[in-house]
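Table S2 (continued). Query chain:
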Amino acid sequence: MRLGVMFWYITGMTIWGSVSDIRKKTVSLLFLLLTGAGVIPIAVWERNIPFAARLCGIALGGVFFLIGFLTKEAVGKGDAAMIGICGAALGLSATVMVLCIGLVFASIVSLLLLCLGKAGRKSRIPFFPFLAMGELTTALFVLL
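Corresponding output:
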């Protein structure tokens, strides 16, 4: 995997969205639309990820929308949308890697919060920061 403009664009936007997700526990629809719209010209310019891989990445976001719907928003719509946007930007395989790393970080932090009594089983934590951590860790693996 090559870290092109698209990777740094989506990572930067995820970090930016993390601020809102931490502060307000929500991400605006306008932010998601603008982030998704920014993916289109970069994808046309870079062309290093097959179109089918991008479609499968978008479908992964759809899976998370379905999971959120079935679990009464255990996964937020904004998180699912950003996973779909990440899938459109990076393709399926890179998005799965980012997502797995992000979920590991989220699990560790959640476990720590539970053990320290700062959160309960029903507590909600913002996922954008963990998605950003997954992207940055993926970059670290690729660059080293």
